[in-house]
Amino acid sequence: MPRFEVAEVFVNHARSAPTREALYDALIQCCSDMGVRYFALTHHIDFGREAGPAVRLHNYPPSWEEWFDERGLGRTDPIHRACNLASVGFAWSAVPDMIKLTPDDRCVLERAYEIGIGQGFTIPASVPGEALGSCSFAVDAGQAFPDEFQFVCQLIGAFAFEAARRISGSRDVQADQSPILTDRQRDCVLWAARGKTDWEISVILGVGHETVIQHLKHARERYGVQKRALLAVRALFDGLISFSDILKH
Question: Could you give the number of structural domains in the chain?
């Protein structure tokens, strides 16, 4: 099957997959079409200690999940840490050039190889208000990863993670928990994040000085914070505003 057809077929299945099982089957077929053995969709959390809706779907050997969870590696796994420094997919062979590997990191990678997980490719998944996540594909230990499918993996990984978020409920929970601000409150938060004073914001928006003060006060109350700097951070984290919004003025 042509490479981009593999991605197109998977995306169509992922968009309509009603259950984890349906998404799992679609990923298994996708792996077969690409010539890889394993896939893993996950939020980077300690699943043994952190509760709440989160993405975790993979076909790694059960012994790997058990070993991984016993050591609480969800946040410290070297592949997961490398995701903090990447905006696009990366080959696992590049990880030593991305982060400084500790002896424990090397132990994790060696253990994965012993269990049968060879070279791989990981696509970071960053959603405001959620823990970082990723979608990974890997081959059996001792085999070469099909590099010609890296770009296809990038496409598939993004849609797979979004489908998993939808099915797991993490997307809906994140949206439900975000404070709702009015359009004018958001405007005030955005200009405050750009470093403008209350008076400057009132001039820019053409409203009264006291009105701006009240808008920002209500926005802080809804977020449960007292400082405008923290208000901006929370708004960024929730996706209410973006860094490009702040810089675009």
Answer: 2
